Amino acid sequence: RGTGSVCPSCEGPTLAPHAERALVLELAKRQILEGLHLTSRPRITRPPPQAALTRALRRLQPGSVAPGHGEEVISFATVTDASSPTCSSALTFHLATPRSHHAYHARLWLHMLPSLPGTLSLRIFRQGPRRRRPGSRRSRTLLAEHRMTTPGWHALTLPSSGLRAEESGVLRLQLNCGPLEGNGTVAGQPRRLLDTAGHQRPFLELKIWANEAGTGRARRR
Amino acid sequence: TPTCEPETPLCCRRDHYVDFQELGWRDWILQPEGYQLNYCSGQCPPHLAGSPGIAASFHSAVFSLLKANNPWPASSSCCVPTARRPLSLLYLDHNGNVVKTDVPDMVVEACGCS
What we know:
The complex is a heterodimer of chains A (221) and B (114).
Chain A: H1 17-35, H2 50-59, E1 70-76, E2 78-80, E3 90-94, E4 103-112, E5 120-127, E6 140-148, E7 152-158, E8 170-179, H3 184-187, E9 194-195, E10 203-209, H4 217-220
Antiparallel strand pairs in A: 1-10, 2-3, 3-8, 4-7, 4-9, 4-10, 5-6, 5-8
Chain B: E1 12-14, E2 17-19, H1 20-23, E3 29-31, E4 34-36, E5 39-41, H2 58-69, E6 79-92, E7 98-113
């Protein structure tokens, strides 16, 4: 601090190199946290598997988000009832609230196993919060329906307006897949079709408006 | 704007590279490995007031000479950033999600006297 000076950056004691370095490191921490609207550095309790991370990062095309346009988020799913014989699973995503409220582009990435028997119809539902009444089921809303014809990775576009996470930031998607209308033979062969382990874990790719006041659409005006 | 040399007392840009390893933040900041944290410091004598560095126009140059030759009323001039650029960051949030964002005005590129 300049003592008595009206221009703190013009005068003041020159710091010893090590003191200046310590100050610079402290400034850097504060600057990065403020820039990311964080009060403290995140504690990573659930790091994604390295292989899944590397594969997912390959999906983030460089420059796919215009500078100052917002953020791009990749969220890995936690899969429940993965033991189901087909690909009807429940995927849970933990998003920071209310991040998903500002998504303008959403894709769900799934990896289908080679055991895919011909063409399947995959319907994706968003599950609402559990109702208060004990034993009641979660409400669900149909988001999209896709045809799965080949094994491997699929990027399934979802309506970003339908992706409202619960207040806790948890987003639940329910997958239901089955034969196309009138194709009964496929249904009779229960086998694992969705790959959920390790680096083939499903993940959600979101493009999100910047959340500072006065940016985004207002700027367009 | 010159980068600071030890003997330069005038307003200049002081360059520092911060490696996130030094902060112990490599576990959650995936890219880049570090960034330039530059800042502006140094004196702004009256005849440099309002000179944003190499971008000074002819008008600014004349204006400066006038000030240098006249006892200009004491109004302080400060060494401040005159050009900045954003920093692209790829990081893990506390849910383990991968976030890619551009943080505006993070890197000081040029300094000048206000």
